[in-house]
Design brief:
Layout: H1 37-59, H2 63-73, H3 79-85, H4 88-109, H5 119-139, H6 145-179, H7 182-195, H8 198-205, H9 211-226, H10 240-244, H11 270-282, H12 288-308, H13 314-339, H14 352-366, H15 371-379, H16 382-385, H17 393-430
Length: 482
């Protein structure tokens, strides 16, 4: 399980040049004692080459070559370099490098969210987002758990972001096709004024603050976002919508030219995107998750009113809402990933036993239960619990034996859990010599104790590989996306 941070990017993000080289952190600050500097430099150079290869594969939509870069990486390492790569101290450096690599890949992909993208590119992105996590897990499953976690955590977040880009792109095109037509926008505004009840929506969807600002959005700024509308679309005369229409228009809702022949959704959705990006500035007291929940709840409440009124523009509003939700989620996830650091990445527990113990500890804090009642009712043998008892002192003797038996069973269960934990710890320590490591001693890069046969690796050191793909097959797309 990977914990992800959600943040909205600052409006004044620095300019990014796609041709800037990737700057990986120095490996020397992560090295264990008595490490050969030449081995460390070799690992740093090979890993940098690996990161550049993965970035270029995504940039040119080479999905099979991207997966091959992960599979063939271990075969390019010598025995001392492999041993250093598996050291626990290097796991933090691996995570840092992967984080920077995926950040650069997201910068390449981000502009495609609102552009017309070829089908081959979308299919290549779908393949990567679907298979990347399982491929990394399978490729590095024979390495220690800390190496697998260091590679799998950033890869999982990147795969989710890539899938989010696809969803935003597909919903953006559907929303743009609707909002490009004047008749659709007029009908959407007419149905909004006729059926949506702003006060009820705000009261049912918002926490204790922000009512007036949200009311202004629902009554006035929605019209500006749907514009340009002619004077015949001034439905709602004598209502709160007419009163709100006399207020000033925000800067992001200035009228822009809409070209019905433009295939890109970027132009018609510009005002909506500026509106979504300004939400954190207009509601600074709300955190990111609260903004996401409130936008979703308000849109759902308004759609319920439109549905109950059997409005003609129900389908148009539904498609627009889906795109707004996906776009806002994408902005929050991308901003958190680009501004965050890998130190905040929390991986899943190393074993299901640890997960169960953690869950039970948290549950005991939330739902405190008397231990004696659980022990007597669930842990005591039925023959003891329901044995014959006298009305007098016999009852107290049976009760004392029951409590004593329950206490013994509790101690046995606790001792069993400690024994299991010790066995797991010993097993984990015994795995270290199999890869030539000793956690309690300084780093030894002699390679003693490591297998050197190519068949022990996930694939041959230099497998069959051609320019167009793996095993003689070409990739679904040979297009440079940025």
């Amino acid at each position: 399980m990977v914990k992800r941070e959600l943040k909205f990017a600052a409006p004044d993000d620095p300019f990014y040049d796609a041709n800037d080289p990737i700057d990986l952190p120095s490996i020397h600050s992560y090295l264990p004692t008595e490490t050969d500097i030449d081995v460390a430099d070799a690992l740093s150079a090979l890993y940098r080459s690996h990161c550049i290869s993965v970035i270029d594969c995504l940039r040119y939509c080479k999905a099979k070559m991207l997966f091959h870069s992960f599979t063939s990486f271990h075969g390019t390492l010598t025995v001392p370099v492999q041993k250093l790569f598996a050291h626990p101290n290097i796991a933090a450096w691996i995570k840092q490098c992967d984080w920077l690599m995926y950040q650069k890949m997201i910068r390449f992909v981000a502009p495609l969210a609102l552009q017309a993208v070829p089908v081959q590119v979308i299919e290549a992105f779908k393949t990567v987002s679907t298979r990347l996590g399982s491929h990394v897990s399978t490729t590095f499953e024979n390495l220690p758990q800390h190496v697998l976690d260091a590679r799998l955590g950033p890869a999982t977040i990147f795969a989710n972001l890539l899938n989010r880009v696809i969803r935003v792109n597909q919903t953006a095109h559907a929303a743009a096709n609707i909002l490009n037509r004047d008749a659709n926008r007029h009908q959407m505004w007419h149905d909004w004024v006729s059926y949506v009840k702003p006060f009820e929506v705000v009261q049912s969807s918002l926490p204790i603050s922000g009512y007036s600002r949200v009311l202004r959005v629902l009554t006035s700024e929605i019209r500006d976002l749907l514009g340009p509308l002619d004077n015949s679309s001034c439905a709602g005369a004598g209502t709160i919508f007419e009163t709100a229409s006399n207020q000033s228009t925000p800067d992001y809702a200035q009228t822009v030219h809409i070209d019905p022949d433009n295939e890109s959704p970027e132009g018609v959705l510009d005002r909506w995107i500026n509106f979504l990006r300004n939400l954190p500035l207009r509601f600074p007291e709300a955190d990111v998750r609260l903004i996401l929940h409130c936008v979703n709840d308000i849109g759902s409440a308004a759609l319920r009113d439109i549905t109950m009124g059997q409005a003609l523009s129900f389908g148009s509003w539904w498609v627009t809402k889906v795109w707004v939700d996906e776009m806002l989620q994408w902005l929050a996830e991308k901003g958190g990933f680009m501004q965050d650091c890998p130190e905040s990445l929390e991986m899943r527990p190393k074993s299901y036993m640890d997960m169960d113990v953690t869950f039970m500890d948290e549950a005991s804090e939330v739902f405190p239960v008397s231990r004696s009642r659980i022990d007597v009712s669930e842990s005591v043998d039925p023959t003891i619990r329901f044995g014959s008892v006298d009305v007098g002192s016999g009852f107290h003797r049976e009760q004392s034996r029951s409590a004593s038996a329950a206490q013994q069973q509790l101690q046995q269960a606790e001792q069993s859990r400690i024994d299991i934990a010790e066995v797991n710890q010993v097993s984990h320590v015994r795995l270290a010599p199999a890869i030539g490591m000793d956690h309690m001693q300084s780093h030894d890069d002699s390679g003693i104790g490591m297998g050197v046969e190519d068949d022990e690796l996930s694939m041959a050191k230099f497998g069959r590989f051609i320019e167009d793909g793996v095993d003689g097959e070409s990739d679904p797309a040979n297009v440079e996306v940025c």
